[in-house]
Amino acid sequence: MARVRPFRGLRPPKELVEKVESRPYDVLDSEEARYEAGDNEMSLYHIIRPEIDFPEGTDEYAPCIYEKAAANFIKFQEKGWLVQDDKPMYYIYAQTMNNHTQYGLVIGAAVQDYLSGAIKKHELTRHDKEEDRMKHVRATDANMEPVFLAYPDNEILSAIVKKHISETPEYDFIAPVDGFRHQFWLIRDDVDIQTITETFETIPSLYIADGHHRSAAAALVGEEKATAHGHADPEAEYNYFMAVCFPMSELTILDYNRVIKETSHYSTREFLDLLSEDFEVTCMGYEPYKPQKVHEFSIYVEENWYRLQLRPGRYNEADPIEALDVSICSRLILDKLLGITDLRKDKRIDFVGGLRGLGELKRRCDSGEMKLAIALYPVTMQQIMEIADNGKIMPPKATWFEPKLRSGLVIHKLS
What we know:
The chain is built from 13 helices and 21 strands. A hairpin with a 6-residue loop joins strand 9 (171-174) and strand 10. Strands 1, 4, 5, 6, 8, 9, 10, 11 and 12 form a 9-stranded mixed beta sheet that branches. Strands 15-17-16-19-14-18 form a 6-stranded antiparallel beta sheet, sandwiched between helices. The two termini are 25 Å apart. By secondary structure, it is an alpha+beta fold. Helix 4 packs parallel to helix 6 (127-140) and helix 6 packs across helix 9 (212-228).
């Protein structure tokens, strides 16, 4: 079962939310955060990217950075830019992109559910990134940014959400940069709060959609605190971490495409001929061609788009990892033809989230920066669930969820 609880969120006053809110820490670098914060002293970047308060070039992992995050967090509370709610509650967070709205419940998720596997993951985490977020959580004693979870659709939860979104939202704004609409409601009703808690107890598992490093850091720090206190208080806030849970049917997973600097020693004609051993290759001309179904790919090379349709018998249908298009692409194109075996370290390859569109793939090739682009059909939520349920791990750079959660709408204090 999934154990969740309401919490007393720390939030910006309604009139300040657009001053405080920000993009997540891990979708931009220090330079971008410095630029976006500008002269806005209320920007959450001063807490989640506190290196912007130091001279350019300062090591963003230096101890003084985490100390500054903690100091700025205190400052935000003292200034009234963040104010704690008067009672524990759940929240509803809605995101609208391209006329599609997804409604998530903001909850406290149980650390023990993460450690036991009831909250299921599908990606590996890097130790350095995990350690960075653990230091940040320790320093601030709070979950600054939520983990992005998914749950199987549930009629009871949907009815509660539908009831509350008929009311005027607490926050309602169009975010800069992404241009998407973000709305936020408070669930203060005690009966609805209890129903949400009890309904999640009937759900066997939750799934991490995005935020594997945040969830690992939050859970491990929570476990550290529980151990330090002898596990004496199972109701302590540090036993839970902040997450936004969306019903699976509402989520949008975009394609996560590849651009490659070279086609090894092959000419374009030779490369296409080699591809035809495993794919039916069709020239589609100058207009961008987007894959229309699973096991269909498109490539862009020398100002032409080609459709690749996988030939039969090229993967083990019983293996959910091998059946993924990202795996097929890696095995039959990147590894077999180009010798690219390590997607995390090989400098010849880069990755482009589907929000940028096929035009970005074309632009990077036409500029001469890259030689070849490969567009993939998006991974499905069903594939992610199957892999997570089987305790397996997705290949690198397989999923791209959009829109990203904005940070600063609510914060969860651990004590």
